[in-house]
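Here is a typical sample entry:
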Amino acid sequence: MITKIPVVVILGHIDHGKTSLLDAIRQTSFVKKESGGITQHIGAFDVEIKNKKITFIDTPGHEAFSQMRERGAKVADIAVLVIDAEEGVKTQTVEAINYLKEINIPMVVALNKIDKPNANPEKVKIQLQNYGIFVEGYGGDIPVVETSAKTKKGINELLEVIDLLYQMNEVKVDENKPAKGVIIEVSLDYQMGKKVTLIVEEGILNLKDIVGTQTAYGRVKNIIDWRGTSKNKLLPGESGIVLGFEDLPTLGENFYVFKTLKEVQIFIEENKDKIIQKKSSVKSKMKIKVIIRADFKGSLDVLEELLIKKLSNEDVGFEILESKVGEITENDVKIAKDMNAKIISFRQKLSKNVESLASSLNVEILNFDLIYDFIDNIQKKIKEEIEQKPKEKKEVGKLKVLVVFKTQRKNQKEVKQVFGVKILDGDIQKNDFLIIQKEKEIIQGQIIEIQRDKKEIESAKVGEEIGIEFKGNGKVKIGDEAIVLRLI
């Protein structure tokens, strides 16, 4: 039995500096701006402290981790909750707190951006008490570290705290067992092919091992760490990019090492019925068909989750025709045209040929780089679809003509009248339609105005007697009964 290298996940609110903090830990000068809860680079890396390694997961947010947990994968051993020391607890901070309570792993609070002029760490510590997070010195034993990704303040202290916390909660594993672990990320590289980022949980993963999940398998042809260095093996807790998978596995799946290709093929066949299928959108009156293309599998999973669970409603839902990693092709545009679908592109460059073809075929491509732009624009698109949806005329009431005040024939096809009515059933509104069935003709038209006591009103209900101005294709007479229709 050996001590597994600890795996650490960093979670928190957008723009509270998760990515900058990871870059400071990584000790690189190349800092990428975080994009709405899905970082520019999704993977994992390791650092050394006191000759011991710590693996950090550069994550797409707790949504993807929730999906991993649904599939039974235990990814992280320790969590770091990052909070801007100036802004304090925000919406996604609370979401992360709730998620961390669910997975129940040791945690550290990093009060980041401590260099900002209005940073107030004591205020944040008190705020956290409202959400059941009690840090050291404030009624609890959760470690708290003040950090600044900008000045590198507290970075070494954070690593030391993580190391000490893991010593108290360290995990022992058997290195002689066949390797198994978790798929952290999947991407398609046009030079390297199918890239699968994984973390080993127990055992040792070696070159030429046969690996498989419920959906894909392959032989390990190469292992590359985050620095781009090739390796011969991965120890428990270590991460790396594995080349050699025949197909792209699914984010969050567990992987195992098998003795033969036949053995892994039998495993996939036996487990195909257990695969978590894409969840259907809620039952909606109207469906928007979409094709999704994204930079990473983790991005795809989060986008699908948002479309199906958060952005669909009773009026408009989504039907995902296809979603995969990679750029939009001309064939995608042709399929979208045939299927009357929209294309969602996430962090993908559009070629001039694709843009030109989409324009000529009138195929809409929705292109996003930020997850929150995606949410805002999809919500606007749903509103547009509802407004553009053809409305149907439905019966909402009945009325009887009591007196005709005025009749004016505009031409042979149009008559304008003012008459008094009693509402027999339902209600009527301005702009409603009337149909009067006579023996030899059907009179139909629209209500232009409604009046009560010579004052204009917008609507009236059953039992009321009112005056209406009506424009139709024939003359209405005393005693006529009309059906009231409304666009709904």
